[in-house]
Amino acid sequence: AGSRCPWLKCVQGAPNLRFCPQSHPAAMGIEIRPFRPGTTDDAGAKALEARASQHAHIPFAETLLRVHMQHTASFDVKARQYDDSVVLLAVDTDAVGAAGAGSDGFVSGCVCVGIKEAWLQGQRRKLGYLFDLRVHEDYQRRSLGSRLNNAAEQAARERGVDAIYLTVNGTNAKARTFYRKFGYSLGSERTVLATPLLFQFGECPDDVNNLKGLPPGPNASPPLPGRDLALAAGLGSLFKSQPSKFIDSWVAEVDGSEKSIAALTLWDGDGTTQLEVERVIFTPATWRHPATQAALLGAELTLLACWARWLWRSSWGLLTLVSGLGFGLAVGGGLLAAMLLRFVTSRQRLRARMVAPSASGPHGVELLRGLAEHARRLARRKGFSFAIANLDVLDPRLPAFKRRRPQPQTYFLQKWLGVESAPDELQAAEVPRFCTDCFFDPRDLS
């Protein structure tokens, strides 16, 4: 991508390397071992990551859209943010010398676990966040994903992890079935609320205009302690360890017969990963080319002129009105989509994360709505394209970000790593869900 849009890395003209393990008898020499920073492991894991389209599980979607998330530095950069971590690779040692292979083989799979201390069921516990479990398409249906998951869980147990959790896309039924096989149960149905920062947002209510900014210290999240998955040490320690990603944190209070309070934190969501776009019908470079922009504008104006002329010469019946309205909406939608694409590709950053939302008291949600507007304005000024919040679809604070209840877009799955680690009341065959207002810290969402 050009300098105007450093967050977007466009993949163009890259060779579509495809290694067929069938050329190596049975591909039996697959070793699961720890990731080794500073070696060919990094290139191999990133190549695997680049093949993991966000929409590969949706039929025909990749024909129109192919995007994926890529770590900005080394492959283990996200895992290293946690107090402890596990990064494992599956390496085909029979494939040394094959296209795309490293010095000791071909990276055919990977999995990561970030380990942290957080609150769960009223106690401080060691939790693991499992992410980036991927298997090269030529190695699928060989139980390699199962081996990676089992190895990750075993490594987490050896580090004293009590429970493990993960997220999957709402449309990825195959992944949900895979994890159910290993005993994961539904913990939360979540929605990702992404607001394009295309227009300037309105002013905050007077009560919120007097908000107090919170320094990145231990008191940055006073309403959170004790909630499921809230960090045991608070957000302050996380802010101090990653000051470049913390943007700001606020609290708003209203005194009355019953005190109302709201708090919100804004975080740079592009800290460890970036969006790579290979195709949106065409490649990003094609969309941004001046000739393409001129052709699109010309086509829109031509269609608009034809529509206006047709309306002018038609008898004004119901069919004409309905057809004209539909055509006008289609043209308007196309123009809006073109404006959004042009806006996004001209911004310096992609995602600002609104995390740790809190609201209590009779006016808490209204205060939080004002804080969200304030956060979006600040994110827009800082060059972000989207402001994103991730909440449970039943979260009582959801109206502060969206008026209507949305459909779940991601599923939060959880599992105790042994009944001996679960509280006495949970040592049963059916482990209940985690609390639906579970809190994700910024590392889990980057």
Instruction: State the end-to-end CA separation.
Output: 21 Å
> Helical region count?
11
**Radius of gyration over C-alpha positions, nearest whole angstrom:** 24 Å
Class derived from helix and strand content:
alpha+beta
* Helix/strand order: EEHHEEEEHEHEHEHEEEHHHEHEEH
CATH fold group of the domain at 9-191 and 272-277 = Aminopeptidase
Oligomer: single chain
Strand order of the largest sheet: 2-4-5-6-7-15-8-14-13-11-10-9
Highest CATH level, the class of the domain at 9-191 and 272-277: Alpha Beta
Question: Care to count the β-strands?
Answer: 15
**CATH homologous superfamily of the domain at 9-191 and 272-277?**
Gcn5-related N-acetyltransferase (GNAT)
Pick out the low-confidence regions.
Answer: 9-27, 54-61, 215-226
Protein architecture, described:
The protein is 28% helix and 28% strand. The protein is α+β, with helices and mostly antiparallel strands and 446 residues long. It has a domain at 9-191 and 272-277: 3-Layer(aba) Sandwich (Aminopeptidase). It has a 12-stranded mixed β-sheet, sandwiched between helices. Strand 6 (123-135), helix 3 and strand 7 (163-169) form a beta-alpha-beta unit. It starts with 8 loop residues before the first strand and ends with a helix.
